[in-house]
Amino acid sequence: MIVHLIDGTYELFRHFYGVRRFKKTDPPFGAVAGVLGTVVKMLEDGATHIGVATDHVIESFRNGLWAGYKTGAGIEPVLRAQFGPLEESLVAMGVVVWPMIELEADDALASAAHLAAQDERVEKVCIWTPDKDLSQCVVGERVVQIDRRREIIRDAEGVRAKFGVAPPFIPDYLALVGDAADGYPGIPGLGAKTSATLINRYGHIEEFPASVLGENRERALLFKELATLRLDAPLFTDAEELRWQGATTDFRAVAERVGDARLLKRVLALETRL
Questions:
Q1: What are phi and psi of 102, to 5 degrees?
Q2: What is the dihedral of CA 44, 50, 52, 53, to 10 degrees?
Q3: N or C: the chain end with fewer CB closer than 10 Å?
Q4: What whole-number distance in Å separates Cα of residue 200 and Cα of residue 216?
Q5: Three-state SS at 143
Q6: Weakly modelled stretches of the chain, pLDDT under 70
Q7: What's the pLDDT score for residue 22?
Q8: CA of 58: how far to CAs of 9, 23, 68, 100, in Å?
Q9: In this structure, how many other beta carbons lie within 10 angstroms of the beta carbon of residue 232?
Q10: What is the CATH code of the structural domain delimited by 2-156+230-271?
Q11: Taking a C-beta distance cutoff of 8 angstroms, is the pair 220, 214 a contact?
């Protein structure tokens, strides 16, 4: 089996701004309909095992570690109002959803990839998100990251080609260069090339000679903690739990609510294949 793990929050944002650019309006459930359509297309293309991770709230335990870490401030109300309906709609579609509160959607994706990769029946794990944090989860050609918009599949060699370091060192790399999207600045004076060179020379930040980071060592370790995704979220015990087995009886109402009758027809057609 091939396990597909989807960053639901990213997809919601992507479709929200895509609909706005295309229609110049903000339909109440336009982004939800877009995400549902994306999942249906994956099923039509042959996907059988799917899990979607969402940020039920944007804030997480990391906000307690670093005051500047990302929050939900600034998210447009019409977009924020679609977070809950997305989760409810996916459940109605029969798709496994992990709404995260203390942890982030990225932690759920990392944990799910870790769990699925331990199952010998799983041939490949595909993590559908361009988020550079998730590059740390890539393992050879078995666990890969897919950037849907750019149509890029990134295996371990692809991660090294992009960042200059192997997947296990991505938290160290991000700690040094920073991550503006997540709200931490990195270490002054250390750009991408210098950071990659240091990591390839010394290894993990913990192994750097004290003189390399000096007074910035503790801050670098804090940023590494922010960048390190959790692998211990108890999401499932068997990858077979992610198999799509058809929609629930509530999905008809969902299709009506989001204003896309064709979604229902497509799902019903997929159910005839089961």
A1: -70, -40
A2: -150
A3: C
A4: 19
A5: strand
A6: none
A7: 87
A8: 9, 27, 13, 9
A9: 11
A10: 3.40.50.1010
A11: no
**Could you state, in order of their start, the residue ranges of all structural domains in the chain?**
2-156+230-271, 162-227
Tell me what pLDDT residue 99 has.
97
Torsion from C-alpha of 241, 242, 246, 247, nearest 10 degrees = 100
Which CATH number is 162-227's, of 2.40.50.140, 1.10.8.100, 1.10.150.20, 1.10.1160.10?
Answer: 1.10.150.20
Distances (CA, A) of 181 to 85, 138, 162: 25, 21, 18
Question: Residue 96 has which token pair?
Answer: 């496994």
Amino acid type, 139 = V
Question: Amino acid letter at 228?
Answer: T
- Asked if 7 and 129 count as a contact pair (C-beta separation under 8 A), the reply is yes
State CA 246 to chain mean position distance. 24
Q: How many whole angstroms from its chain centre is CA 35?
A: 14
pTM higher than 0.85:
yes
Taking each helix axis from N to C end, the angle separating 83-93 and 8-23, rounded to the nearest 10 degrees, works out to 110
The pLDDT, as a whole number, for residue 274 is 87
What are the strands of the beta sheet with 152-154, ordered from one edge?
Answer: 96-100, 49-55, 2-7, 124-128, 143-147, 152-154
